[in-house]
User: Which sequence fits this backbone?
């Protein structure tokens, strides 16, 4: 089944291919994080309140990472909506509640984004968004 408007390398993307492309994108993101010294704690975490692509740790820094792949890095950045940020935040809270030993040994959650586009180097954006009073706000302009 194809969804209108979805393309990869100039051609429509079928649902199964989109799933494989997502897995490949997450593997690239994992490689980027490992190269930067992160320990991958979990991939593809699903909770009743949301999902997280990657949970990683480096020292006392705990990162909940969203991976986005689009035709351009700008499109990847723009595809991260406020609603999606809220889901990631809720899923991170859920993840932390089940792991008090991890939560107590970190400086608190960080929300990162890894942007991917064909022919471009991956872009890791640390602290890409933050939450004040339960509502997300962009920390920086993409």
Assistant:
């Amino acid at each position: 089944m194809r969804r209108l408007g979805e393309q990869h390398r100039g051609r429509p993307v079928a649902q199964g291919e989109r799933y494989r492309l997502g897995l490949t994108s997450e593997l690239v993101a994992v490689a980027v994080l490992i190269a930067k010294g992160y320990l991958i704690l979990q991939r593809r975490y699903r909770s009743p309140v949301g999902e997280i692509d990657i949970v990683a740790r480096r020292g006392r820094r705990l990162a909940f990472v969203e991976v986005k792949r689009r035709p351009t890095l700008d499109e990847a950045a723009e595809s991260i909506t406020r609603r999606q940020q809220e889901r990631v935040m809720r899923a991170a809270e859920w993840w932390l509640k089940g792991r008090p030993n991890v939560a107590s040994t970190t400086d608190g959650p960080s929300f990162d984004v890894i942007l991917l586009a064909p022919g471009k180097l991956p872009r890791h954006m640390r602290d890409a968004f933050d939450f004040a009073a339960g509502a997300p706000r962009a920390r920086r302009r993409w």
